[in-house]
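Note to self: keep these together.
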Amino acid sequence: MFKNKIDSIQTFKNEAKVQFEPDSSPAAWGHYKKFYSKNKYLNNNYDFSDLFFYNCYTDFGLKRGIYTDYEWFNYLNKPLRKGSRYNRLFVLEKDTKIKKINNTEYIVAAYRLGGDCDFNFNEKKYALFLEIIESDSTASKQEKANASQQLANCREMHHNLLNFSLMQGIGNMQKFKGSNRYDRLDTFVYELDKYFRGVSNSILQYSSPNNKPALISFLNDFKDIYEYCATFYFITEKTFINEIIKQGSMPITNVTELMRYMNLAEKYWSIKEFAFFQKEFLAIGDYFLDGGTVFSKTELSTKIKNDFGYEQDEIDELLIKCEKRGFITSIGNNSYTR
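Structure:
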């Protein structure tokens, strides 16, 4: 359900076959809305009811944006030309100023949330990691074979909902994360923790002078790395967050270190998947708050489809998992109670 690979070519509103970054695509946003919009802080501050392109006027060959009411509106709610960079969709902070001119919406510099791949195992990173395996003279043939197989499995998880999370767009944290040779989530969390503890401001280094105060203000909304990870990664276990931080300071130079990193990624995906299932299980459990309530499979499927947007095969999978974990009970005749 959460492990389906997300393709880059998708349809959005009236735009067919738009080339998207999978982590910021309509399909990814269908997932984000189900889970992130239920977070009180995010729901209070961001409008999850609509999605926007946020492309600079320079991307369209324009000399400048729109200046009106003493503000510059430099970003267009318009997809990029086919064959250029991949498109990204964002939700904007509530009450973000937008001007519509000649049927095009122009947006001010704004707080916005967009998708990001957590652990980067794309083809470029896969090649770098494979080089580490092949060049390690201390690893045995079997160790290399095991690492290569695990790496192939991680590559399959790259464009996967369990490997997608939202990130603040203003202040260029995504560029900071990507500046690491391997685009490592653990190193990003390690540096973010140092910022929250007042040890380092490295996380701000790619912010422009105009946007740096906005990023600082955003980060000040979180008391520590644990609150940040709970909000954006659905990871609440402090011991595991500490493990991520610890590993984020360690190098990846040989097979042993690479396997340690891949084990961390797999553990992260597993914990995140359980967090998503748990939220679904609790939501479905709420259908049965009245003792003795019984729903037919059709009635239950309709509720789940309306609340989560799942197709029938996904609903069937979810019902099986709910039943196995004791959240619902089958009483025969395709009926359920709790």
